[in-house]
Amino acid sequence: MLSKLLKSNLFIIHSILIVFLLFFTDTALAKKDCATKSFSINLGFLSSGISSCEIVNQNYIKLYLAPEDNDVINPSPWYAFKKSPHKEKVYVEIFYEKFKHRYHPKISFDSENWRKLESKSFKQLDDGQRILLQFNPERKESIISAQEILSTEWYDRWITRLSLNDHIMVNDLGKSFGKRPIKKISIIGDQNNPYIFILGRQHPPEVSGALALKGFIETIIVKNPLSKEFTNNFNIIVYPLLNPDGVDLGHWRHNLSSKDLNRDWGFFTQVETELVYADIQKILSENRRIIFLLDFHSTFENLFYIQDIEEEKDLEFNVSEWLKGLKDSLKNYNYSIRPVKSRNNGVAKNFFYQEFGISTITYEVGDETDRMAIASSSEIFSKAFMDLLLEKRVIYD
After folding, report:
1. Angle at CA 367, nearest 5°, toward 180 and 99?
2. Cα separation of 204 and 121, whole Å?
3. Cβ proximity of 360 and 396 under 8 Å
4. What is the C-alpha separation between 299 and 166, in angstroms, rounded?
5. Nearest alpha carbon to residue 98 among 55, 61, 62, 69
6. Helix (H, G, I), strand (E, B), or coil: what is residue 390?
């Protein structure tokens, strides 16, 4: 009884702290801004990250970056800031209080079109503990970020465009811990068709994986004979942004409850994973069938995690053969296939394989993979995926 009371009190205290953080988020962001006579740094926008700044001199500002929690494992050190116009050459230093530099800086002047900052404009110091960015005089405000900024606003625009298609339904599944909506995209031909589930953005900085998910889904819904036949025979449910709090707050790994969502499947301690799984259970409760799970992520290289050789023998869908057969079709997109034995560690790929006995893939995209190559490869992977499932649709009837 005492133990339950203690746990209850700890939960209440943690909830109060989170509410306090949410209430003062805008104020905290505003206080982080730095300005000199030459230029200013603005950190008060979605996905700007947890940062503080220091004015070193008129032309030099230093940013301090730290992860959202002390115990972040496998972090993706994120940064994003806006820089005002300036008439002189200026410098911005990024200091990682924990971990080291990972992402090549990207720059945008309109939040939509991004390019890599020229290598001559930045250098790593202290073995990646710091980076120094150099900017020549500029007449426009710019955004500098670890990756393209795909905040909840970006997802809202993309999902709104998708919803214009007649056979696509979009709805809010529920709210995250921070009261942001968890969106659900349904592509339904016949309610009794087999179901494919797709997950995205469990880890906030993993933007290249989000771009691959976008290309994969857009290929499925484009109007052509292959897509029409596929959507007539299979239903696709997409949860494109599982961690909206982490994305908007610039987290390196966790949600707002200090949890790695891709270590919570099967445990369901977090509202985000619980919401999604409850929805999947509801769909499948009508004697409907799940046949596949795809989970999009990013890492240092293009990589597919699949079932190990022994596990795959008992599956209807041979994932390794599907992926191996595409290597000659892809340009500028090298990738590896890594069979991994499933463990009870809360990873979505492992949980869905163990729970339903289906093929599951963690679709990892390299951080710095060429964005055009991501778009073209995701289209090829998507078409081959549809072709192979249609070949085996007799099994699923």
Report:
1. 80
2. 26
3. no
4. 35
5. 69
6. helix
b or e along 308-323 (b: 16 or more beta carbons within 10 Å of the residue's beta carbon)? eeebbeebebbbeebb
Model pTM score: 0.91
Joined together, the tokens standing for residue 68 give 């959202």
**Domain residues of the chain, as ranges?**
32-145, 152-396
Per DSSP bridges, beta strands 235-239 and 195-200 are parallel
Q: Tell me the per-residue pLDDT of 200-232, one tens digit each, with 9 for 90 and over.
A: 999 999 999 999 999 999 999 998 999 999 999
Dump pLDDT digits (tens) for 38-50: 999 999 999 998 7
Whether domain 152-396 has CATH 3.40.630.10? yes
Cβ distance 102 to 147 under 8 Å? no
Q: Which of 30, 35, 34 is nearest to 45 (CA)?
A: 30
C-beta separation of 218 from 210 below 8 A: no
The CA-atom distances, in angstroms, between 89 and each of 94, 118, 133, 135, 139 are: 17, 15, 11, 6, 12
Domain 32-145, CATH: 2.60.40.3120
CA 225 to chain CA mean position, Å? 30
CB 135 within 8 A of CB 83: yes
Q: Report the C-alpha dihedral over residues 211, 113, 134, 87, rounded to 10 degrees.
A: -160
